[in-house]
Amino acid sequence: MRVFPLLLPLALLLAGCATPQNNYDPLESVNRPIYAFNDSVDKAVLRPVAQGWSNYVPGGVQQGVRNFFGNIDDLFGIPAALLQGKWHAAGEGTGRVVLNSTFGLAGLIDIGSDVPFKKQDEDFGQALGYWGVPSGPYLMIPFYGPMTLRDSVDPLSRLAWGPIDYIDPLAGQIGYYSVAMVSLRAELLPLDATLQDALDPYAFIRDTYLQRRWFKVYDGEPPHPLPMALDDDGDDDAAPPSEQATAGTATP
Which residues pair with 138 in a beta bridge? Predict the structure, then answer.
């Protein structure tokens, strides 16, 4: 995982020699082989392990693991919400983290939802989008999956500062990421049939990811459709905060 930052400069260097197939995927000729590689690893290793996890690990354990990593998401969501001026969301996120990290046994039990403190869905990529930073090129990262250059700030922040810093030795860090990956893949198992029915699974994942991120930046109320086709106007999906305010995004 710590080699991930090295992939971003490489992607930028390759951007100049790639032929774009849509406004956000200038690296499609590079991304598609990486997707094929990730897909082969998924079919050979990750998906069977996730199926075993889903079928044989007790439901309470699975839920506890999801709660634990969800609590970490809540922690990183607090500063992301503050950067967007979402004071209520930051407050509820703080309440969740405090309750779940203490009475919830390090997040294994989601007490915050019973209070209730609504679970927030904020990250640093959304915060940058709020302030007008464009998404940059779509990237398919080996062993990771879809991302945009702007959204890479979120996993990079977790590498720079996060629970992994307190886990030692290396075997513990590998175990941490492995459990997180298997748990997330198990949650996505119901979507496998939809992906198998897609005419172009790569394009389906790409377009779904970009649309989802577009809606999240604008809290579900984007000012216009995402211009993904080559004949659409422009390639910048982020507007200044003043325009976002009219779309329902909180202003700082």
Answer: 148
Alpha carbons 243 and 158: distance in angstroms, whole number = 30
pLDDT 10s digits, 104-134: 999 999 999 988 899 999 999 999 999 999 9
Measured distance CA(175)–CA(65) in Å, rounded: 13
d(CA 78, CA 83): 9
Task: Mark 124-145 as b/e (b = at least 16 C-beta within 10 Å).
Answer: bbbbbbbeebbbbbbbbbeebb
Q: Is 145 left (phi over 0), alpha (psi -120 to 50) or beta?
A: left
CA–CA gap between residue 196 and residue 189 (Å, rounded): 12
Beta-carbon-side half-sphere exposure of residue 176 (alpha carbons within 13 Å): 18
Q: Which token pair is 229?
A: 């086709």
In contact, 154 and 44? CB cutoff 8 Å: no
Q: How far apart are CA 13 and CA 199, in angstroms?
A: 30
Burial of 208 (0-12, 13-18, 19+ CB in 10 A): middle
Residue 115 near residue 123 (C-beta atoms within 8 A): no
Domain regions of the chain by residue span: 4-246
Token couple for 16 = 């100049």
Decide: 65 and 210 in contact? Cβ < 8 Å. Answer: no
Structure tokens at 80: 């992301």
Q: Helices 87-102 and 59-83, interaxial angle, to 10°?
A: 140
**DSSP annotation string for 210-227:** HHHHHHHHTTT--SS---
The answer to whether 176 touches 167, Cβ cutoff 8 Å, is yes
Q: Per-residue pLDDT for 3 more than 90? A: no
One-letter amino acid identity for 139? Answer: L
What global pTM score does this model have? 0.81
